[in-house]
Amino acid sequence: MSFPVHRGRRLRRTEAVRAMVRETELNPRDFVSPFFVVHGRKVRREISLMPGNYQLSIDELLKEAAETYRLGIPAVILFGIPDKKDSVGSAGHIEKGILQQAIRQLKKQLPELYVITDVCLCEYTDHGHCGKIVDGEVDNDATLQLLVKQALSHAQAGVDMVAPSDMMDGRVGAIRTGLDENGFGQVPIMSYAAKYASAFYGPFREAAESAPAFGDRKSYQMDPPNIREAMREVALDIEEGADIVMVKPALAYLDVIRSVRESFDVPVAAYNVSGEFSMVKAAEKLGWIDGPRTMMEILTSIKRAGADIIITYFARDAARLLKEEWV
Ligand code: PBG
User: Fold this and answer.
1) Mean pLDDT of all residues in the chain?
2) Phi and psi (nearest 5°) for 308?
3) What mean pLDDT comes out for the span 220-228?
4) Catalytic residue IDs
């Protein structure tokens, strides 16, 4: 059947009918809001490349997290910035570490809020790489136990879920075993399964003070042109015990999100990363695009591609807009 019997515009004439046939709808429950945590009190240092995002001390984090939960966003993901760094990222797994303290406080003050932590060495190492350096290279197997220690210390502090982002081979299995052997069989793992070596992480490295001091991350993060490899990475992580798999970045990898969604039956998360956020903010500031509309379109596209969970710096702005639409 074709024109004039069929007229696509009939179902686009008014907002009411558009709403009735809408296929994808965002909800604040889809979002996870990232936070950067630093030592100290009353610290609220704006990240210049990511307007509206801050390095927060724990007292300030508690306020932001409460507001996040009030907006209907169920979860936060935390990144820690230690006061001391060393070659193996020891500050990442000590009991008094920044994230360990943040987890304890959050779970005490806001028990309903779901707390996820990023597990990685790059914020804690003086060289900024995501693993231990042996003979000038990131050594895979020597890194695994350090990651297990870090994940375990988060679990001991009461974290709800851990999210390893280092891209070492075998880390999901190692962390699963480490958690299980220590009585944390109930703590799920969200693995950064298909994580690409991306230019879109630029602003994050200012926020987390984690830029590599030499070289780049291409020997462990994935090569952007590859999608079959992403399927292998995801399959392996699921085999090793990942409960949720993540594709990162999101916007330039919507095809990967879609493929993962269609090929696997575990929940899929997508990380709408710092560069994707900052581009919108910068263009908005220049008056080149409508920021809020662009934000909603991007987030909707990520959900339409198949993401069940969207980790995004837009979480609170988007949740506010969604609330306004409802009233
Ligand atoms: C650390 C980590 C990174 C991001 C999340 N965890 C940076 C990196 O791999 O260089 C990027 C997040 C973002 O850009 O928003 N391993």
Assistant:
1) 97
2) -85, -30
3) 97
4) 195, 248
CA of 17 to the centre of ligand 1 (A): 41
Give the pTM: 0.97
Residue with tokens 């100290």: 40
| Ligand 1 within 6 A of CB of 120 | yes
- For residue 261, the CA-to-ligand 1 centroid distance in Å is 22
Other Cβ atoms within 10 Å of 202 Cβ, number: 14
Neighbouring-strand partners of residue 139: 132
pLDDT tens by residue, 16-74:
999 999 999 999 999 999 999 999 999 999 999 999 999 999 999 999 999 999 999 99
Q: How far is the CA of 202 from the centre of ligand 1 (A)?
A: 9
Per-residue exposure over 288-327, b if at least 16 CB sit within 10 Å of its own CB, e if not: ebebeebbbebbbbbbebbbebbbbbbbbbbbebbeeeee
CATH of domain 25-323: 3.20.20.70
